[in-house]
């Protein structure tokens, strides 16, 4: 309990990781909503002498009707460019939501459960070193100490 209190009162790497992951998740959600709206509304283009968001009334149905894509006179090929850009942003933001969400859960678990390095006592490390040095050849070894790996060179 005191470790949790210490983590909250003195924000360290774990608490910063929680905040960074939360901000990353919020940014990814914002990107997803803006790019989804951009796909739904469609590009602003010149059609029949008028600059407007002509595909807004279709509620995204223009995405599957390729014949409507050529109705925009200016700028040329604006609909495929718009669809490609916002589709890539939707895919990237979905991936970012997944990765930041996993990191957020990991960071929260790290704040509440702590780090295994804090739980290994000095005496336990000394006993393992004595055991390793007395029974094994003197080269680099790696063996578990509690939940951690101890390396002796």
Automatic annotation (TrEMBL):
GO terms for cellular component: membrane. Pfam families: L6_membrane. InterPro entries: L6_membrane. It is a multi-pass membrane protein. The keyword RNA-binding does not apply. It is found in: Membrane. Signal peptide: none annotated. Keywords: Membrane, Transmembrane, Transmembrane helix. The chain crosses the membrane at residues 85-113. Belongs to the L6 tetraspanin family. This is Transmembrane 4 L6 family member 5. It comes from Heterocephalus glaber (Naked mole rat).
């Amino acid at each position: 309990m005191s470790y949790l209190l210490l983590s909250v009162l003195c924000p360290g790497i774990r608490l910063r990781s929680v905040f960074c992951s939360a901000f990353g998740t919020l940014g990814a959600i914002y990107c997803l909503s803006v790019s989804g709206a951009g796909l739904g509304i469609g590009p602003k283009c010149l059609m029949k002498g008028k600059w407007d968001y002509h595909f807004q009334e279709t509620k995204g149905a223009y995405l599957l009707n390729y014949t409507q894509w050529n109705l925009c006179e200016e700028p040329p090929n604006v609909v495929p460019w718009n669809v490609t850009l916002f589709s890539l942003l939707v895919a990237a933001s979905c991936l970012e939501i997944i990765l930041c969400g996993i990191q957020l859960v990991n960071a929260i678990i790290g704040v509440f459960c702590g780090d295994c390095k804090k739980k290994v006592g000095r005496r336990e490390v000394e006993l393992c070193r004595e055991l390793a040095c007395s029974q094994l050849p003197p080269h680099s070894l790696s063996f578990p100490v509690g939940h951690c790996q101890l390396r002796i060179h």
